[in-house]
């Protein structure tokens, strides 16, 4: 196991940004920048043992600084959407910074994805780890409380493990996630519509056309939202169904089956041409499956690759969407003396 650091650039205020590359005994690599706690590269072998990068992204820091797609970043304080950019907590209404119409998405324009994190490294005989910490001051993007967040990336033998933690000095909201876009083919210029997906989720959250949940928790059975058995991503991605129309494809939160808080398989993604299999395991209650509907055509990516519509998909493990404004959803409130903590793993194999 090995971990190496290199200077990757500098922010406009002169602060240096570093890129850390973790390598395991199988030759897999995970490269992570301290800017945005961003997963920049993740390699995995195909059925013949050939390694390839399986996530979308860019070559330079500047591209990440101006990226509207959240490629590989750590999202916070709150993943996904907060309706009307407001919430009430303990009788006080808090207004957060909008950045998608009237709503806030992924923590706002100055969310955790746009911040420089403090990094420390460690390695052992069986793994290499990078610990990233960020202090979010009281009032940042409208959220109450001084929050100390931590993400630990560990490249183990079977893949990448991410442990998220946070503590606060005032009641606040926290729902962190990684926002990687996967393409298991290893050719990031290909569509992911031929990937076969299974979700351990018999329910999902219907939304309005702004992708704000309606408050209903609906069954997937008998609808294009059903991935409880393996199904090609492209089979129903444009089906004449209300949920699909709202998301212009898949952009929905799927509620995982099983007990909340337990480590479980949330999703399995398979690419037949390469034989690569991704298993997403998490302690979170659900995942947002996004089929890359908003990716523009001929978007310049890594090593000159041109990305396009649905060339990558996201499986974002986090708390219920718009939880503070939906009384029927589990809360994402963090209080002083508590520790927010969850684990998500990207585990790779071949078939």
UniProtKB/TrEMBL annotation:
What PROSITE patterns would the database entry show? ALDOSE_1_EPIMERASE
Q: Binding of beta-D-galactose: at which residues?
A: 80-81, 179-181, 251
Q: Which CDD domains match?
A: galactose_mutarotase_like (cd09019)
Q: Which GO terms describe its biological process?
A: galactose catabolic process via UDP-galactose, Leloir pathway; glucose metabolic process
Supply the Gene3D superfamilies for this chain. 2.70.98.10
What positions does UniProt annotate as the active site of this protein?
179, 316
What this protein catalyses is: alpha-D-glucose = beta-D-glucose
EC number(s) given by UniProt: 5.1.3.3
Source taxon at top rank? Bacteria
Pathway connected to this protein: Carbohydrate metabolism; hexose metabolism
The molecular function terms of the Gene Ontology recorded here are:
aldose 1-epimerase activity; carbohydrate binding
Q: Which InterPro entries does the protein's record reference?
A: Ald1_epimerase_CS, Aldose_1-epimerase, Aldose_1/G6P_1-epimerase, Gal_mutarotase_sf_dom, Galactose_mutarotase-like, GH-type_carb-bd
SUPFAM superfamilies noted in UniProt: Galactose mutarotase-like (SSF74650)
Query: One of this protein's Pfam families, by short name?
Result: Aldose_epim
Q: Which UniProt keywords apply?
A: Carbohydrate metabolism, Isomerase
UniProt similarity note: Belongs to the aldose epimerase family.
Q: What is this protein called?
A: Aldose 1-epimerase
Lineage of source species: Bacteria, Pseudomonadati, Thermodesulfobacteriota, Desulfovibrionia, Desulfovibrionales
